[in-house]
Design brief:
The chain is α/β, with parallel strands linked by helices. The protein has one domain: Ribonuclease H-like superfamily/Ribonuclease H (Nucleotidyltransferase, domain 5), CATH 3.30.420. It contains 5 helices and 7 strands. The strands form 2 sheets. Strands 3-2-1-6-7 form a 5-stranded mixed β-sheet. A two-stranded antiparallel sheet has the order 4-5. Strand 1 and strand 2 form a beta hairpin. Helix 1 runs parallel beside helix 2, helix 3 packs across helix 5 and helix 4 crosses helix 5. It is globular, with a radius of gyration of 15 Å. The chain starts with a strand and ends with a helix.
Length: 163
């Protein structure tokens, strides 16, 4: 049996470990440190490496993010930094990465693309798929955990794994 990572990029994101049947094995909040002169949250590469090395994944499915029209330059840079950290950590660990756009992964798991209610929809879908792991998604701020796990499921669907 092989395992894969699903990763929702960003300071509110998370990595999730799933097996090739779509069973959720583990999910944790993205490791964050407050950094820089304004103490902004940034993904911590050393802490993320610990997670990636501890979890025996063979492939990572990562949300493909880019600058958004309503986002300022600071937010865009932060998202880009997070993507670079995630991609670099995976590369250093020898873990291949496949990117999935938000509309692609949401469609694959049955969530309507768009902003309105998407975060709660992700949590609801995660609880529906993994009721025994509902505590992982109990808090409103656990939407990143839910999205990471569902990105992993969407990646498995894309790979042609029967779920």
């Amino acid at each position: 049996m092989s395992t894969i990572l699903g990763i929702d990029i960003g300071s509110q994101g998370a990595p999730a470990l799933l097996d090739d049947t779509g069973a959720l094995l583990e999910v944790v909040d993205m490791p964050i440190l407050l950094d820089g002169p304004r103490n902004r949250p940034n993904v911590s590469a050393p802490m993320l490496v610990e997670i990636v090395r501890r979890w025996p994944a063979t492939l990572a499915f990562v949300e493909y993010v880019g600058a958004r029209p309503v986002e300022g330059s600071t937010g865009a840079f932060s998202f880009g930094h997070s993507r670079g950290v995630v991609e670099g950590v995976c590369a250093a660990a020898g873990l291949p990465v496949a990117f999935l756009t938000p509309p692609t992964w949401k469609r694959a798991v049955g969530i309507l693309p768009g902003k309105d209610g998407a975060k709660d929809a992700a949590r609801s879908e995660a609880v529906r798929r993994w009721p025994e792991k509902a505590a992982f998604f109990a808090r409103v701020k656990d939407d990143g955990r839910a999205e990471a796990a569902l990105i992993g499921v969407a990646g498995l669907v894309r790979k042609g794994c029967a779920l």
